[in-house]
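[audit] Reproducing an earlier prediction to check determinism. Same input, same settings, fresh worker. If the tokens differ from the archived copy the diff job will pick it up downstream; this log only records the rerun itself.
[audit] input (247 residues):
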Amino acid sequence: MKLFVVVPAYQAEATLEATLDRIPQATWPEISTLLVIDDGSRDGTFLAAERAAGRHPQVRVHRSEHNRGYGPTVKAGLEAARASDCDVAVVLHADGQYPPERILGSAARSQERGIALLQGSRHLDGGARKGGMPLYKVAAGRALCALERRVLGLPLTDFHSGYLLHGRAALDRIPYEKLGDSFDFDLQVLACAAALGLPVGEEAIPTRYADEVSHLRPIPYGLRVLAVLRRFRAGEFHRLCGVPRRI
């Protein structure tokens, strides 16, 4: 199996190397490319990525001159993965909140299950609370996910973890380049999968809430989520994907 790992990194000097160092030695031979995309950071993120590249020949580093945001950064990584011969592309955040130790096992299980997209769930076994997520965030997240399940018809308990694995079917069929540029990019990917009828699954992941700096603003993000659901119900994602909407 060939893995392509996309690491979007912004102001991640303090966490990037430690996150990559958590990838088990047995996993590195399965990684064809690990692409760190420094999204215009003003700290030492690029230098940290270069140091990691000195330790692992699979690491490539791309540096954006300006901060473009989450969506364009992940798009660029997934488009590079699409152009490669990888079997699975893994989006791994640079802050270490999601488990780099699990990427190989998650990828293998996604292929065994025939899943185009594998979403990591913080809620499936209570991992969010165990990892320190505030109770109000847990409650709000569950309410939002219930609405998303109803609209998108996907059997997921978490649509927002950021730990998302893209199999070859997703890479070849989802029009990433047509999707939005904000933090709701991942939800738009899932909306495309629902429109295309691609198999989507999830597995429980542990999470850590420590002193990482979040660049996501909850209220604007929540409004964007509702906009994605409204657009899905209107058939917009079916049109983007070139498939008829099933009534």
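[audit] rerun output stored. Observation attached for the diff report: Residues 3-241 form a domain with the Spore Coat Polysaccharide Biosynthesis Protein SpsA; Chain A fold (CATH 3.90.550.10).
[audit] end
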